[in-house]
Amino acid sequence: MLNNMTDCEEGEGGPNSQGDGNPKESSPFINSSAATNMDKSQQYDGNNMALFEEEMDTSPMVSSLLSTLANYSNLPTGSKEHEEAENNEEGSRPSKKPVKAPQLGTLMGVYLPCIQNIFGVILFLRMTWMVGIGGVFGSFIIVFMCCSTTMLTAISMSAIATNGVVPAGGSYYMISRSLGPEFGGAVGICFYLGTTFAGAMYILGCIEILLIYIVPQAAIFKIEGLEGPEAEAALLNNMRVYGTIVLSLMALVVFVGVKYVNKLALVFLACVILSILSVYAGVIKTAIDPPVFPVCLLGNRTLLSKGYDVCAKVIEIDNETVTTKLWRSFCDSEYLNATCDEYFNNNNVTEIQGIPGVTSGILAENLFGNYLEKGMILEKRGLVSDVDPDSPTTSSNRYVLADITSFFTLLVGIYFPSVTGIMAGSNRSGDLRDAQKSIPIGTIAAISTTSTVYMSCVVLFGACIEGVVLRDKFGEGVSGNLVIGTLAWPSPWVIVFGSFFSTCGAGLQSLTGAPRLLQAISRDGIIPFLRIFGHGKANGEPTWALLLTASICEIGIIIASLDSVAPILSMFFLMCYMFVNLACALQTLLRTPNWRPRFKFYHWALSFLGMSLCLSLMFMCSWYYAIVAMGIATCIYKYIEFCGAEKEWGDGIRGISLSAARFALMRLEEGPPHTKNWRPQILVLVSMDAEQNIEQPRLLSLTNQLKAGKGLTIVGTCVQGTFLDNYTEAHKADQSLRKLMETEKVKGFTQVVISSNLRDGTSHLIQVGGLGGLKHNTVMVSWPRNWKQPECHQEFRNFIEVVRETTIASIALLVPKNISSYPSNGERFTEGHIDVWWVVHDGGMLMLLPFLLRQHKVWRKCKMRIFTVAQMDDNSIQMKKDLITFLYHLRIDAVVEVVEMHDGDISAYTYEKTLIMEQRSQILKQMHLTKNEMEREIQSITDSSRGSIRRKNPSALRSQRSAEEGAGAAEKLEEEPGAVSNPKQVQLSHSRNVSTPTSPTSPTSPAAPAGGAVVWPDNKGAEKEKSLLTATSEAGKDFFNMKPEWENLNQTDVRRMHTAMRLNEVITKKSKEAKLVLLNMPGPPKNRTNQTNPMHNAVYRNYPFFIDIHFMIFVGFGCLLAFFRFYGFGGMVFNFLTATFAIQWAILVQGYFQFSHDSKIHLGVINLINAEFACAVVLISYGAVLGKTSPLQILVMALLEVPVFAVTEWVVLKYLKINDAGGSILIHLFACYFGLGVTFVLYRPSLNEGHAKENTSYHSDILCLMGTLFLWVFWPSFNSALVLKGDDQHRAILHTFIGLSASTLTAFALSAMLNKNGKLTMADIQNVTLAGGVTVGASVDMMISPVAAYALGVIGCIACMLGYKYLSPILARRLRIQDQCGIHNLHGLTGLISCTAGICAILTASEEVYGPSFYEIFAHRAPVEGDPKLQELRMVIPGLKAGLGRTAQKQALFQVAAIFSTIGLSALGGILTGFLLRLPYFASPSDDFCFDDKPFFEVPPDYDSPVRLKHSNTNSVEDSTV
Question: What pTM value is reported for the model?
Answer without folding.
Answer: 0.52
